[in-house]
Amino acid sequence: MRLGMLINLVKCVGCYACAIKCKQEHFLPPGIAWGRLLISETGIYPKVTKQLYPVLCSHCKEAPCVKACPTGATRKREDGIVWIDQDKCVGCRYCLIACPYQVRSYYSEEREYFPHQGPTEFEEMRKRLYPLQTGVVLKCTFCLERIDSGIKQGLKPGVDREATPACVIICPAKARYFGDLDDPGSEISSLIMEKRAVQLHPEYGTDPSVYYVIG
Amino acid sequence: MIQTKPYEFMVKYTPQREWIEKRGIMLWLAFFFVELGAGAFIVSSVFGSLWGMFIGWFLCGVLGGGFHLLYLGHPFRFWRIILSHGWKTSWISRGLIFVGLFLILGAIHLILVQWASPVPGLLIAAGVFAFCTIVYVGFVMNYVNSIPLWNTPLLPVLYVILGIWGGLGVTLIALLATRDTAVVGSVEEWSRIFLLAFIFIVFIYLFSIRYQGPTGMTSVRQIVSGKWSPLFWVMVVVFGMVLPLGVALGSWLVGFAIPVGLLYLVVIFELLSDLALRYCILRYGLYAPLIPARI
């Protein structure tokens, strides 16, 4: 099994719901975003082209971050998800430098959303439910907690909501698809073939698991 | 430097920041001292300067190692870098193993030379690992294929030359300070050879990067005409190339003996030039924009 994501840029409306939901799902502190929306404008008025690219960790098959990590803290699971063991990370940030997509963040110190006014309920909940260490690198996990608990319940990632990443569930334009790239019968595999989806910058040789439909 | 605002992130040329800003400064110093120390150890062992070897060991182990630890987010976990199996793929892990072996073997050799009799082969082994220490930083950076300024085989070569050249300077100072002047002339000659190699490799390196695509071209343009370009022109070119070359040519053509004070000054300028060049290379390590995508 190799889990992957397809983002249909034709459908994406650039509402940032995926990025916000990701922050909410993982109680991410200020300045840390696992999902981003890159917006580029080219040309001169009135002939302007705007490109919207939601980006997140590509969980690359040939992940340069996994090879760069000196402690084995960044690892790849059998289902293709690249994750970071916070207890093993030394905070050297080599993985962050090695990632060509720049989707990793270094959490240097505890930050509050409203400095000097105490933590919000959201931040209190993070400490209980999703404790993050400082001095380590963080990144998108494809919501592996949801996937693991869903699979335990006999659910299928990408098919059942409870076993699917939060950004896919929240997308109001239904621009995101999730599933097994190794299964030729899965919806995501069919769409990749049918829509001729492409990977972002394949020239880096990373074989990303996130595909884009560009038109 | 190129500033990217949040909405310009990876849409324009985006500089790496983690290895040069805030605590990243520690890594810049760590790379410098580790290579300088290892270079000084190798050169001093060739020229038989015990003090030079000790200074090299100190620079590499105490300053280089110390700055490395200060940089890490979790310095007390550094043992994981050595004891995990990271060395199979990670150049940082390999580098720390090289540094560790060099420091251990070097320390044993220095202790034996001072208080007992040296063991044959130990110095050679320490020298080999010292050389690996000089080499590893170049490979750490060379691995990053999305930063064209770093992703070139010339970078490890440049860093080897910088390490040995800096080591020659440190050895020269150690020899002059201990009034062990028998081999000063030879060290000076080698220093001039490495000065020419340094000048050659810097220009070849920058010239070749220009042809690695628009990102590489932008990096080079920023180095020579960006916000920090005075650092390159004044510290690297004037202090690191023109001044030492002028002193060497003056001594060679006119035949005057270079005063000791001037030698100290030239070595200090050379080391500052080394530091400045490393800063420029780290500062202007640019990533290509992810979009507009040409996929």
List the uncertain runs of chain A: none
What name does CATH use for the topology of chain A? Answer: Alpha-Beta Plaits
Q: Quick one: which chains have the greatest interface?
A: A-B, 46 and 43 residues
Question: Mean of the pLDDT scores of chain B?
Answer: 92
CATH class of chain B: Mainly Alpha
Secondary-structure element pattern of chain B, one letter each: EHHHHHHHHHHE
SSE order of chain A: EHEEHEEHEHEHHEHEE
Strand content of chain A: 15-25%
**Can you tell me the CATH class of chain A?**
Alpha Beta
Low-confidence stretches of chain B: none
In the CATH scheme, what's the topology name of chain B? Answer: Formate dehydrogenase/DMSO reductase fold
The amount of helix of chain A comes to: 10-25%
Main pleated-sheet profile of chain A: 4 strands, mixed
Cα distance spanning the termini of chain B: 28 Å
User: How many structural domains can be distinguished in the coordinates of chain B?
Assistant: 1
| Cα-based radius of gyration of chain A, to the nearest Å | 18 Å
The number of helices of chain B is 10
List the defining traits of the structure above.
heterodimer; A: 215 residues; alpha+beta; Alpha-Beta Plaits; two-stranded antiparallel sheet; 7 helices; B: 295 residues; mainly alpha; Formate dehydrogenase/DMSO reductase fold; 2 strands
Overview of this structure, please?
The complex is a heterodimer of chains A (215) and B (295). In chain A, 24% of the residues lie in helices and 22% in strands. By secondary structure, chain A is of the alpha+beta class. The radius of gyration of chain A is 18 Å and the shape is globular. The two termini of chain A are 28 Å apart. Chains A and B meet through strand 2, strand 3, helix 2, helix 3 and strand 9 of A and helix 4 of B.
Topology:
The complex is a heterodimer of chains A (215) and B (295).
Chain A: E1 3-8, H1 17-25, E2 36-44, E3 47-55, H2 64-68, E4 74-76, E5 82-84, H3 94-98, E6 105-107, H4 121-129, E7 136-138, H5 144-152, H6 166-170, E8 176-180, H7 187-195, E9 198-199, E10 210-213
Chain B: E1 14-15, H1 24-47, H2 50-71, H3 79-83, H4 91-115, H5 122-142, H6 154-177, H7 184-209, H8 214-225, H9 229-254, H10 260-283, E2 286-287
Antiparallel strand pairs in B: 1-2
Helix pairs in contact in B: 1-2, 1-5, 1-6, 2-4, 2-6, 4-5, 5-6, 6-7, 6-10, 7-9, 8-9, 9-10
